[in-house]
Write a structure and sequence with these properties.
eight-stranded antiparallel β-sheet, about 35% strand
């Protein structure tokens, strides 16, 4: 019993990595995830038995590891991924939250959901097909969402006789494209998810490759969770006013700290009103604390009785964002119905939802050459474009490059509540293309 406790303590003390898988249809995403879970000993016996039984029913000789993530009946019947499948597993070195996202063009919206909180994206490419349009779309989404690490997994190398030139050509094409998008770090790994080559164990069939396996890279890639270094932001979710005999004058503002840290005695500004006050107390889990930081859920009490309600934002007075009713952003359109100029929408930013109108759609991104198609008039499903929106009330948005939490928003259909688009305020792609210099003469850092 003591050994198990010690092992659990070691795992719980490791860092956490959130990552997402993406790629075109039948590139092998679910098989890769299944292989990763299976070979890292993260699959329970009953789960494996269920997969083996389902595989036999489908007439397969070997267990189909893709079934470990494809849990919907429609997914298993069609052999595709439809919904985002989240899996949690751990090794001795790190804990992981994995989002297995669909490859079909019509489910690109799910890839946006899965990658929105990811620190790393694994983009799969079928070695036989190379980089296709959906590969470019997923690279663009990863760049827009500022995912700091991208892994190019060139899959099905066993079907091209493990040929190094095939891998090198695909890796060069993808890296050039992703670098133009401003992706700061790209790691290319040749794999066979079906056979297990370079997924958890190094491949004996590709002695020309000397880099890490997929799991080794996931365990060692540097990640930072220091949200305390970001601009402090606290969206108010709920006003606590019990008005009981025990707490007749208690007035607290509850919510989750989006970024940064807040301290008792600190002067804050309430946005969008601009009123100022001082933090007199912070309650966390029913106990008073002197300091709280993201992503803690707390209740903040102020020295002054200010008109504050759900959707207001608290920020340090010396570092408060500007408010504006004009929002310019890049959006990924995720609805079946188009987004048009003049359309009335709802804009949801953190805990605040306001009425808005689409004033202009300046451009739509062409994925093939990354050119901008000017004034398209509308955006249809899976389009990526720039929009200008006018809101009925001022909003305190940060640039998405500064804060993924307070720089993002949703455009919603006011008629039925359908999500129309996911937006990132400010510049679209990273202006500084911080691509690591290659170490060898072929331009690949293996």
């Amino acid at each position: 019993m003591s050994t198990s406790t010690e092992q659990f303590a070691d795992v719980s003390a490791t860092t956490l990595l959130r990552f997402a898988t993406a790629g075109s249809v039948d590139d092998g995403k679910s098989t890769l995830v299944g292989r990763l879970l299976h070979d890292s000993k993260s699959v329970l016996t009953d789960q494996l038995e269920a997969v083996e039984a389902a595989s036999i029913q489908r007439g397969q000789d070997a267990p189909d590891l893709a079934l470990l993530t494809d849990g919907l009946r429609a997914e298993r019947e069609q052999g595709i991924t439809i919904d985002v499948a989240y899996r949690y597993f751990a090794t001795a070195r790190r804990r992981f939250i994995l989002a297995d996202t669909p490859g079909h063009v019509q489910y690109t919206r799910n890839m946006v959901t899965g990658a929105s909180t990811a620190e790393l994206a694994v983009v799969l490419v079928d070695a036989r097909n190379g980089v296709v349009e959906q590969t470019r779309r997923h690279a663009a989404v990863a760049a827009l969402l500022r995912v700091p690490h991208v892994v190019l997994a060139v899959n099905k190398m066993d079907l091209v006789d493990y040929a190094e030139p095939v891998f090198a050509a695909i890796a060069e094409e993808f890296t050039t494209y992703a670098s133009e998008l401003g992706v700061p770090e790209i790691t290319a790994i040749p794999i066979s998810a079906l056979a297990g080559d370079n997924v958890v164990e190094p491949s004996a069939n590709m002695d020309w490759y000397g880099g890490p396996t997929v799991l080794e890279h996931l365990e060692t890639v540097p990640v930072s969770h220091d949200l305390t270094a970001c601009h402090a932001r606290f969206p108010v979710q709920y006003v606590i006013r019990p008005q009981t005999a025990e707490h007749p004058d208690y007035r607290g503002y509850a919510g989750q700290i989006a970024a940064g840290a807040f301290r008792v005695g600190e002067e804050i500004t309430v946005l969008p009103s601009g009123r100022t006050s001082t933090i007199t107390a912070i309650d966390a889990l029913g106990e008073p604390v002197d300091i709280a930081w993201a992503p803690q859920s707390v209740t903040i009490r102020l020295a002054d009785d200010i008109d504050i309600s759900r959707g207001d934002l608290l920020a340090p007075s010396g570092d408060a964002p500007a408010t504006s009713q004009d929002v310019e952003a890049t959006v990924c359109h995720v609805a079946d119905q188009p987004l048009t100029v003049g359309q009335r929408v709802l804009l949801k930013h953190t805990t605040r939802t306001v009425k808005a109108i689409v004033k202009e759609i300046p451009s739509r991104l062409t994925l093939d050459d990354l050119s901008q198609h000017p004034e398209p008039g509308q955006l249809v499903a899976n389009d990526i474009g720039r929009v200008k929106v006018r809101t009925a009330e001022p909003l305190a948005l940060d640039a998405y490059a500064d804060s993924r939490r307070t720089g993002s928003f949703l455009l919603i259909d006011p008629a039925d509540g359908t999500t129309l688009a996911a937006g990132m305020a400010g510049e679209s792609f990273a202006s500084a293309k911080a691509v690591a210099a290659a170490d060898d003469e072929d331009g690949w850092d293996f």
